[in-house]
Amino acid sequence: MRAQFVLSEIGVGLRRNLTMTFAVVVSVALSLALFGGSLLMSDQVSTMKGYWYDKVNVSVFLCNKSDAESDPNCAKGAVTSDQKKQILADLNKMTSVVQKVTYESQDEAYKHYKEQFGDSPLASSLTPDQMQESYRIKLKDPEKYQVIATAFDGRDGVQSVQDQKGILDNLFGLLNGMNWAARAVMALMLVVALMLIVNTVRVSAFSRRRETGIMRLVGASGFYIQAPFIMEAAVAGLIGGGVACGFLVVARYLIIDHGLALSQKLNLINFIGWDAVLTKLPLILATSLLMPALAAFFALRKYLKV
């Protein structure tokens, strides 16, 4: 096969169908940018889970005098010294689950509340004796919260057992929902891109039906006839893949590092690094090359009947 002939035919085909080629490039770029974005979003959620789940605590809140008057769980009165000692002793025995136990007094709880919610109107009306003592428990496995809840929920002197992981699960559920929505849009754009690729290849084949008919008569092989059309689609797709890679690199640069600079404004979030972005680029480029080529190949098998 003469490479010069194939390359010249590719150039002719792309120029003849410039508008449709542009539509293919744009649709492939958008669909693969969403594809790469969804992969990066999955990495970001996994990174955040690993970062935050390692920091979450289970809190065992103890009854105070105010709770004894208003909370059914504290109907037997405020926690006693013996009850606190027994709760701590039981926690220290759970070495297979508990990694560390930290006691927080009412004064410490009041100080932390003032630091976090000092601007709240309610803060000025609170006093330290209204705050709850608690044991902050660091688990070896954050999934083992139920073990603590079963052991201490409803016990005398315990007002409630709260798991911070539950709050994070709601956040990660929202992020995962957004990720699936992006994937749905990506799938729709991918279907549009494939339809455009098939139509572009067929229009190109129809406009050159005279040449392909002559080539069949002189005994040219099916692959020799199909190759220029397949490579046209592959080149258009590869250009779209390159644009998609550019989108992802620019988005990472502007959103996280500069521009919005979320990495500086949201210090509590552990953002994915450049390595996560760069490892996705070869996959996007390979997809942008193979997807249009395969779509063109199967479209031409029936259309050219070679």
Give the key terms.
306 residues, alpha+beta, 11 helices, 4 strands, 70% helix, elongated
Give the count of helical stretches: 11
Low-confidence stretches: none
SSE ordering: HHEHHEHEHEHHHHH
Largest sheet: 4 strands, antiparallel
Describe this structure in words.
The protein is α+β, with helices and mostly antiparallel strands and 306 residues long. Helix content is 70%, strand content 8%. The chain is built from eleven helices and four strands, in the order ααβααβαβαβααααα. The protein has helices at 3-16, 18-53, 65-70, 81-93, 106-117, 145-152, 164-207, 209-217, 222-257, 262-265, 274-304, and strands at 58-62, 98-104, 134-139, 158-163. Strands 2-3-1-4 form a four-stranded antiparallel sheet. The two termini are 17 Å apart. The model has no long low-confidence stretch (mean pLDDT 81).
Briefly say what this structure is.
With 306 residues, the chain is of the alpha+beta class. The chain has helices spanning 3-16, 18-53, 65-70, 81-93, 106-117, 145-152, 164-207, 209-217, 222-257, 262-265, 274-304, and strands spanning 58-62, 98-104, 134-139, 158-163.
SSE arrangement:
Blueprint (H helix, E strand, L loop, with lengths): L2 H14 L1 H36 L4 E5 L2 H6 L10 H13 L4 E7 L1 H12 L16 E6 L5 H8 L5 E6 H44 L1 H9 L4 H36 L4 H4 L8 H31 L2
Antiparallel strand pairs: 1-3, 1-4, 2-3
